[in-house]
Amino acid sequence: MEFKGETQRQINSAGFRIKNVYVSILVIGIFISLFSGIVYGADLTAKEILDQVEGTVLFAGDGSARIELITESKRGQQRSNTLQIYRKEDEDNTEKQLLEYLRPADVAGTKLLSITKSESKDSEIWLYMPALGKERRIATQEMQTKFMGTDFTYEEISGTAAYEEDYESERLDDDVVDGNKCYVLRLAPTGESEYTFVKMWVWQDEFIPVKIEFYGRGDKLRKILETADWKKNESDKWEPANVVMSDIVSGTKTIIKIEETSEADIPDDYFTVRYLRRH
Amino acid sequence: MRVGRILKDNYVIPIVCIVLALVLSSAIANAMGPGSTGPDISGEFNQTVNLSLNGGGLALGITDYRLALDQNLRQLGINVHGHAHVSVKGWYNHDVSDGTLLELDEAYIDIYRDLFDLRLGQQVVSWGAAYGLNPTDYINPIPLTSVSDQGGFMDISGLPVPAIYVSAYPSWKDTSFEADVALVLNPRFQELPIPGFPIPETPKSFVDRLEIAGRIGKNFGMWDLYISGFRGWEDMPVLWFEFGSFPPGEDSPFLIPKTAYRKATSFGASASGTSGPYTFWGEGSYNFPDKMKELDIPSSNSPISSNDSYFQVVAGADRMFGDAGQYYLMGQYIYNSQGSLLSPYNMPGEEVKAGHYLAAIARATIHDDHEIELLSIYGISDDSGIVVPKYTYKINPIFSAWIGTTFLVGDEGGEFGSLSEGKSAVAGIKAVW
Predict the structure, then answer these.
(1) By three-state DSSP, how is residue B31 classified?
(2) pLDDT range class, residue A16, cuts 50, 70, 90
(3) From start to end of A191-252, where are the E strands?
(4) Contact in structure between A110 and A10 (CB atoms under 8 Å)
(5) How close does chain B come to A171, measured CA to CA in Å?
(6) Nearest CA of chain B to the CA of A232: how many Å?
(7) pLDDT digits 0-9 by tens, B301-347
(8) For residues A141, A144, A147 and A153, what is the CA-based torsion angle, rounded to 10 degrees?
(9) Distance CA A249, CA A253 (A)
């Protein structure tokens, strides 16, 4: 009789990490595929600023990235995973993603393939574990609703795209972040949300959201999303080298260090179960 | 003195292997010139300690290690899309002074072509969707003796066999499917778990030893379905008693224990899929052993094994909970028409009762450092089972430490009685690099 306890643990552990990885993908989505067309104007309204930011936040098309994902506990203990991420969007809007753990050794070689068809609510996800030598399906619903990693919801990470529709925006006094002039927007949800409002700092020169604060009940600050070390990549697009998400309530942090990005076309066969099984 | 001898006997070879692998890797990388990368080296080392809860103190348990080299073929200058893998392993049980200090684990070459992927060499072929017990995992035998080690629920994997494994992924219009064929060149026959029986002969001819397995898979929306078949040797030998002559003055004849390996044909299917937050799976196989006249009833023999066909079915589901998936629950039902999961044998004349089992796992992971796990399996048929609690602390990305034990539920004379640790616990440390 065989009962792979260690493998089971790995599945669970990988599941825990999967959610972290999803956060990273979304964050990369926000910050890699950035807008290069710029409209200057001191009299821009909050909505006009959001118009510029919107459309820059979705990670569309093909791309790959290597990132270091660090989770930090309340006590400051850090765990680090290095991941290679591939992504592709088909003409029919089917989103394909492949993640491969590169480090540490206990999860190296673990791969996660997800395919989300445009008409489908749920993603198809396969997890490949090298110790087991085969893949298995993973349920996704909870990941989609709760949002996947650490302490963040989908809205916090990717909600920027819907801010114009789902939030009432107000422009506050401009501010400076890391020496860069920023528009500051106050965004209040019009519908149901766990936040009472969100503050977003948008780099004036590039219309890039460089910092987001999330406020909860009693208008208390709950989470902060910060970016640092912005530079232009090979495609002349801005990207941050570091992204830090801090949960003020729980005291935990998720730190993402973007080591390498590429917009080179990814072959279709990367997003297959067959590829998962290959070394 | 004792520690020194233990080190000499059990740690020297693994350490030498690790050093040699590092030197070899470095040498290959240097020989390949600047910009090239040598093989990736990975491995793990485990050491367990048995803790007596009755004041009996500590004793070394099992030492084991595994070392692997992986190399992309193109990086070796070979113009083939592929990969090479070699791994060795060893283990030593200090309690019974038995072990294997160095043996080949897997050694194969992968070649990736447009139409197919080929794996050639000593390998493990993993089939099936269920957890732990896979009725359609025909190819690599699971050593029954290892089940009793450390509570029986450690990471037990099949024994690698020399084989040719081909996977093809044809597609036609919008339909694609998967076809896999494995040809086993030299199957591994399992040792007899019952003392007093002669060691059975293994087939001599190369052709006679061959095994073949195949499967076809297709994706249906959120579900994957595989249908498979196998023709080859059963892992365990069949047993029977042959009646000898009557000893002088006795009313009953001599019973002569006999053994033999036999072939079987199997058919199976497995499916896995998701619905909402749940993953479901089901897997089963029906097995037709070749009839042996020695096992026929009535006969002049007293058979322990049977000529009857048998089947296994496993079905289960799992899901993760919590914001970060830190809680995990799994439940699985197992049916085995042969009776016990741990032994395919029944006493002569004993009625074979199908085995029904329930298995469950509950696990909580706290910030990826601390893990508490409760694993259990319960035999409905004989009202016995075991519960295996385990705590693991991940010290850093390389080292983790754990402690656990096995509690018996129900009758000590039941199927799982031999797996209970009794008044002891097992602790261990693991290094992965």
Answers:
(1) helix
(2) very low
(3) 197-203, 208-215, 221-232, 238-247
(4) yes
(5) 33
(6) 26
(7) 888 899 999 999 999 999 988 766 678 999 999 999 998 888 888 88
(8) -130
(9) 11
The neighbouring-strand residues paired with B120 are: B109, B164
Partner residue facing B371 (CB), from A9, A136, A277: A9
The Cα B120–Cα B107 span in angstroms is 9
pLDDT at B361: 95
User: How buried is B380 (Cβ within 10 angstroms: 0-12 exposed, 13-18 middle, 19+ buried)?
Assistant: middle
B149, pLDDT greater than 60: no
> Would the pLDDT of A1 be above 50?
no
Residue of B nearest to A19 (CA): B324
3-state secondary structure of A46: helix
How many residue contacts between A and B have a Cβ separation below 8 Å? 164
Q: Do A12 and B147 touch (CB under 8 A)?
A: no
Residues A83-126 have pLDDT tens digits of 898 988 888 888 888 989 898 888 899 898 988 887 766 678 89
Distance CA B96, CA B81 (A): 46
CA distance B133 to chain A (A): 5
Q: Which residues of B touch A11 (CB under 8 A)?
A: 328
Residue in chain B lying closest to A133 (CA): B126
**Partner-chain contact A16 B324, CB within 8 Å:** yes
Query: Which residues are within 8 A (CB) of A118 and not within 5 positions of it... i.e. 6 or more apart?
Result: A92, A93, A94
pLDDT at A38: 42
Picking from A210-219, B55-64, B205-214, B219-228, which range would have the lowest pLDDT averaged per residue? B55-64
Of B124, B155, B392, the CB nearest to A133: B124
pTM of the model: 0.83
How confident is the model at residue A261, as a pLDDT? 84
Option in A11, A133, A150 nearest B126 (CB): A133
Distance between CA atoms of residues B297 and B295, nearest Å: 6
CA geometry: angle A155, A110, A239, nearest 5 deg: 45
pLDDT of residue A230: 86
> What is the overall mean pLDDT for chain A?
76
pLDDT at A75: 82
Residues A169-187: tens digit of each pLDDT: 999 999 999 899 999 999 9
Rounded to 10 deg, the angle between the B2-10 and B12-31 helix axes is: 40
Contact call for residues A238 and A218 (beta carbons, < 8 A): no
- The answer to whether A219 faces chain B, any CB pair under 8 Å, is no
Q: Identify the structural domains of chain A with CATH numbers, from first to last.
A: 5-277 (2.50.20.10)
Which residue is closest to B391 within chain A, CA to CA? A9
- Asked if residue A142 lies in contact with residue A153, where contact means CB atoms within 8 angstroms, the answer is no
Which residue is closest to A81 within chain B, CA to CA? B397
- Hey, which residues 89-108 in chain A have their CB within 8 Å of chain B? 103-106, 108
DSSP state of B30: H
For chain B, what is the mean pLDDT?
85
* pLDDT of the residue at B144: 64
Contact residues, A window 113-152, toward B, CB-based 8 Å cutoff: 122, 124-125, 131-134, 136-143, 146, 149-151
Domains of chain B: 1-47+72-104 (no CATH), 113-432 (2.40.160)
Say which residues have a Cβ less than 8 Å from residue B325's Cβ, sequence separation at least 6.
A12, A15, A16, A18, A19, A142, A143
Structure letter (DSSP) for residue A261:
E
